[in-house]
């Protein structure tokens, strides 16, 4: 059995041909493919604007520059990749870590409580963890009642829907971000995007992506003006050619992920291996997370990871609580009251989940997991 990682890309001949065609074209970067990809993403996510950038972290950084000011208090989740809260720090704002709910997402009821108690809170940065979308009813309620900034980190959730609201449509938020890293639903190798329905934010993002540089029709032919401090966060035409090709297959990828989730659910039914949530058609299943009460077993989580690796299966842990990372502890974090997150971190791990995982490979993963845990 070849090594089975927790996630990986699905590339076929049509992707390869699309990339080769761009290599043979006049544009390697910032050509027609960037625009085509942005429009295709906006169309898919039912949102007005999309700006594609170098990676998901750059997307978070630029969104933060548009949405936050220095010193702003921002509610966010400890259960995410580091980039989500790092992007709050990048602009000198202050993350406040809120405990998660049982489904792994930030607990929006606790957010409401925090907002009631502290009217100086400016924003929520939420993550649609594992592909399971945040409750849009609650986001709408929060937006209307407290009039704060909302960012949705949809790095896990392109294609997910809650109540007919598709992820990254920004129906109840100011911006959403996407990532096209190879473990995510579709890939551009490195790559990311910001979506928004605000023309003002869209225009600002375009300027910030390219050094803060502005060129208008009334300027002399050689002229450009730098009006604010921007970056080179451009994505290439080569990457976007891959993205356009991948996006055409996204619905098929998500259907396959849902099949895999249902197979796992069936295998773990009535066992001591508990799916984070039983089959949820809203989720686009970036991850398949299970929880096991290790205190009732003779094996530790560390032993489990090592033994599965020996059997050529890569488990992963999503995520170590961000607020407990040494850098965050050095800033005074780490002592938050997050009992659900703490228990989750003790018990959780992610199983292989990607469209190219075959049924045989999945059966091998399930069989091996039961053997090793017993
Ligand atoms: C992958 C990921 C990111 C960052 O995306 P990159 O493209 O790797 O920079 C941000 N947030 C979450 C939740 C992610 O999973």
TrEMBL record:
Pfam families: DegT_DnrJ_EryC1 (PF01041). The active site is at residue 184. Signal peptide: none annotated. Keywords: Aminotransferase, Pyridoxal phosphate, Transferase. Its EC number is 2.6.1.92. The modification N6-(pyridoxal phosphate)lysine is found at residue 184. GO terms for molecular function: pyridoxal phosphate binding; transaminase activity. GO terms for biological process: polysaccharide biosynthetic process. CDD domains: AHBA_syn. InterPro entries: DegT/StrS_aminotransferase (IPR000653), PseC (IPR020026), PyrdxlP-dep_Trfase (IPR015424), PyrdxlP-dep_Trfase_major (IPR015421), PyrdxlP-dep_Trfase_small (IPR015422). NCBIfam families: PseC. Belongs to the DegT/DnrJ/EryC1 family. This is UDP-4-amino-4,6-dideoxy-N-acetyl-beta-L-altrosamine transaminase. It comes from Poseidonibacter ostreae. The lineage of its organism: Bacteria, Pseudomonadati, Campylobacterota, Epsilonproteobacteria, Campylobacterales.
């Amino acid at each position: 059995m070849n090594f089975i990682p927790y996630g990986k890309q699905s590339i076929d001949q049509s992707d390869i041909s699309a990339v080769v065609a761009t290599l043979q074209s006049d544009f390697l970067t910032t050509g027609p493919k960037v625009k085509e990809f942005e429009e295709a993403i906006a169309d898919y996510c039912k949102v007005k604007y999309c700006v594609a950038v170098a990676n998901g972290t750059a997307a978070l950084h630029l969104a933060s520059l548009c949405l936050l000011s220095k010193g702003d208090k921002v509610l966010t989740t400890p259960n995410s990749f580091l980039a989500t809260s790092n992007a709050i720090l990048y602009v000198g704002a202050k993350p406040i870590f809120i405990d998660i709910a049982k489904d792994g997402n930030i607990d929006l009821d606790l957010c409401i409580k925090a907002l009631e108690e502290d009217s100086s809170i400016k924003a929520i940065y939420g993550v649609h963890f594992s592909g399971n979308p945040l409750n849009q009813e609650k986001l709408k309620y929060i937006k209307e009642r407290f009039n704060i900034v909302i960012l949705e980190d949809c790095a896990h959730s392109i294609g997910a829907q809650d109540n007919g609201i598709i992820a990254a449509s920004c129906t109840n938020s100011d911006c959403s971000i996407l990532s096209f890293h190879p473990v995510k639903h579709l890939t551009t190798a490195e790559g990311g995007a910001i979506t928004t329905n605000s023309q003002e934010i869209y225009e600002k993002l375009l300027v910030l992506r390219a050094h803060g540089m502005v060129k208008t029709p009334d300027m002399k032919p050689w002229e450009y003006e730098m009006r604010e401090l921007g970056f080179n966060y451009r994505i290439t035409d080569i990457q976007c050619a891959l993205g356009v090709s991948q996006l055409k297959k996204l619905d098929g990828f998500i259907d396959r992920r849902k099949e895999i989730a249902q197979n796992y659910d069936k295998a773990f039914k009535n066992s001591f291996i508990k799916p984070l949530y039983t089959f949820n058609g809203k989720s686009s299943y970036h991850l398949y997370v299970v929880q096991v009460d290790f205190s009732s077993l003779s094996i530790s989580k560390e032993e489990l990871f090592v033994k599965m690796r020996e059997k050529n299966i890569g488990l992963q842990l999503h995520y170590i609580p961000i607020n407990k990372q040494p850098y965050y502890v050095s800033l005074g974090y780490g002592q938050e009251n997050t009992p659900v997150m703490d228990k989750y971190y003790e018990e959780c791990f992610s199983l292989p989940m990607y469209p190219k995982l075959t049924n045989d490979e999945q059966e091998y993963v399930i069989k091996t997991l039961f053997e090793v845990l017993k």
